[in-house]
Design brief:
CATH architecture of the largest domain: Sandwich
Oligomer: single chain
Order of helices and strands: EEEEEHEEEEEEEEEEEEE
Shape: rod-shaped
Distance between the termini: 119 Å
Helix content: under 10%
CATH topology of the largest domain: Jelly Rolls
Number of domains: 3
CATH class of the largest domain: Mainly Beta
Largest sheet: 5 strands, mixed
Structural class: mainly beta
CATH superfamily of the largest domain: gp9
Radius of gyration: 36 Å
């Protein structure tokens, strides 16, 4: 096989047809205008790597690539914007994922997800990783349809192991078989739970979340009772006498304080427009 070498420029006006391999050393420029085109009939057998990172685009606003087939992971250092439907396997995004259409993925790992609509279908489970929060912010209400809404089922031990409960947390206690909520820095049975009773030992706040409060005094103890809602009733009874119990309602229409000195002293209160009203009393002293 002979080899012809040119020491000068080669300028060809017509077509060039090569039947063998082509090796081009140095820079290669194909075309001199966007009206020129390149057609690849062969497969690409190497990586396509840009000369400078984060500099060159693949496609443009006016000229988009059609379908993108990826057999493995997609790693994005900035935003993903899906205008129509994105059907993916696993997605790992280092910044925000903004979706205006639909995204279908086996696994999506996202720092922040901003979506106009999220639709979950099929028998799979949508899971929020441990330690993360999901916040539902609606103008009117958050609605769950066609299925029950299930609270976390926790034993008393599991409930008490929650590191930092906040007022407003709600669970179902499987030890006591009661719905419970965290209010005024304590777990309370919710109104309507079977045998819904607050049991308080030592001074503290009388719960509004239960219709009955049983007091165990550990000395001369003071208790507070916040304002309720009109029509609400509250029964308070001393079950263990370790000293006098003094209860001070925030708004008390028929007095200032309630004192219980003996076991079985009790009082029934009704909250009205002027505050708590005494409707029944056994042994309690109202001052």
């Amino acid at each position: 096989m002979s080899t012809t070498k040119y020491k000068q420029d080669l300028d060809v006006t017509g077509n060039i047809t090569l039947s063998g391999n082509v090796t081009a050393d140095g820079n290669v420029i194909l075309g001199d205008a966007d009206t020129d085109s390149i057609t690849l009939n062969a497969d690409i057998t190497s990586n396509i790597v840009p000369d400078v990172t984060n500099t060159y685009d693949l496609g443009s606003t006016g000229k988009n690539w059609k379908d993108l087939f990826i057999a493995n992971d997609i790693t994005v250092g900035n935003n993903i914007v899906a205008l129509q439907v994105a059907t993916l396997s696993d997605v790992t995004v280092g910044a925000d994922l903004n979706v205006t259409g639909d995204v279908t993925a086996n696994t999506a790992t996202v720092v922040n997800l901003v979506a106009t609509n999220i639709t979950a279908t099929g028998s799979g489970t949508q899971t929020i990783s441990a330690g993360a929060n999901i916040e539902l912010d609606a103008t009117n209400r958050v609605l769950v349809t066609d299925t029950p809404f299930r609270l976390a089922n926790l034993t008393t031990v599991e409930r008490d192991a929650i590191a930092s409960p906040v007022n407003g947390d709600i669970i179902y206690n499987t030890t006591d078989n009661k719905f419970q909520g965290y209010a005024t820095s304590a777990w309370e049975d919710l109104q309507g739970s079977v045998n819904s009773v607050q049991q308080i030992s030592g001074p503290g706040a009388i719960s509004l979340a239960t219709p009955i409060t049983e007091i165990t005094t550990t000395g001369t103890d003071s208790y507070t009772l916040a304002d309720g809602v009109i029509g609400q009733t509250k029964i308070i009874i001393m079950i263990v006498d370790g000293g006098d119990a003094t209860i001070t309602p925030t708004t008390f229409a028929t007095g200032t304080t309630i004192t219980m000195a003996d076991v079985n002293d009790n009082i029934t209160l009704l909250y009205g427009a002027n505050g708590w009203v005494n409707t029944a009393n056994q042994g309690s002293i109202i001052t």
